[in-house]
Design brief:
This protein is an all-alpha fold and 235 residues long. The chain is built from nine helices and two strands, in the order ββααααααααα. α2 runs parallel beside α5.
Length: 235
């Protein structure tokens, strides 16, 4: 009995005989279910951040380069997973995250007027190269190198934002809900990557995401508590 690539026959067979399913039977199914849960949740993960910017009409405290690098990282990761033939449940969220990340960058640009020439050059360069990467029309060795570099890209996409939060002692318009979902998704993706026998580089990327997303989430909790205390003192 299969449904969306998930085989329930093993589990139902064990339960029908009054037995708890074996680990080798249960873990792959849990991995698939969690994978699809991540894909489903990814359709809205960036929306709280987008809505917060639109509501306040401000990008205060947000690092533009951080969100730009995030788009580049999602593009490379998605292209690599597709052309490696991994199951959709192992990478599907990347497609939704990429679309939302592009919309988010566009919103940030809109509220960061005037936009400098360097920003326009970066945007045009991405638009020129992204279709080639997503189509996999590059040398296989270069593809591997690009995917290896995307871990560094995701790391450096977080560092400017982490540093800006630390310098300002504030997280500005960063969304707690988006950061929380990013952190939770990274933790679940480590488990699913192991179960799906994904390349080690994919697992490393997920582990790195836990560290960086966890840092930003911690900063939001810490600095928002300070802001609340300051507001109470001024009342």
């Amino acid at each position: 009995m299969e449904f969306f690539g998930m085989d329930f026959s093993c589990v139902f067979g064990s339960l029908s005989h009054g037995k708890f399913p074996e680990k080798d039977c249960l873990l792959p199914l849990i991995s698939k279910l969690l994978g699809y849960c991540i894909v489903a949740a990814s359709t809205t993960v960036k929306l709280p951040q987008i809505m917060k910017i639109l509501k306040h009409q401000s990008v205060r405290g947000l690092s533009v380069i951080s969100f730009e690098l995030e788009v580049v990282g999602y593009t490379i990761a998605l292209a690599y997973c597709v052309h490696k033939g991994l199951p959709f449940s192992a990478y599907g969220e990347l497609a939704f995250l990429l679309v939302q990340a592009i919309i988010l960058v566009a919103v940030i640009y809109y509220y960061s007027q005037p936009i400098g020439m360097k920003t326009w050059i970066r945007a045009l360069l991405y638009c020129a190269l992204a279709p080639t990467v997503l189509a996999g029309q590059i040398n296989p060795v270069l593809f591997e190198a690009l995917y290896a570099s995307q871990h560094a890209i995701f790391l450096f996409s977080r560092i400017p934002q982490i540093w800006k939060n630390f310098s300002n002692k504030s997280t500005g318009e960063l969304s707690f809900l988006t950061s929380l979902m990013n952190f939770g998704g990274s933790m679940v993706r480590v488990f699913t990557s192991i179960q799906e026998n994904a390349p080690r580089s994919v697992l490393m990327g997920s582990a790195l995401s836990i560290a960086t997303n966890g840092t930003i989430l911690s900063q939001i909790i810490l600095y928002q508590k300070r802001d609340v205390k300051k507001e109470k003192k001024t009342e």
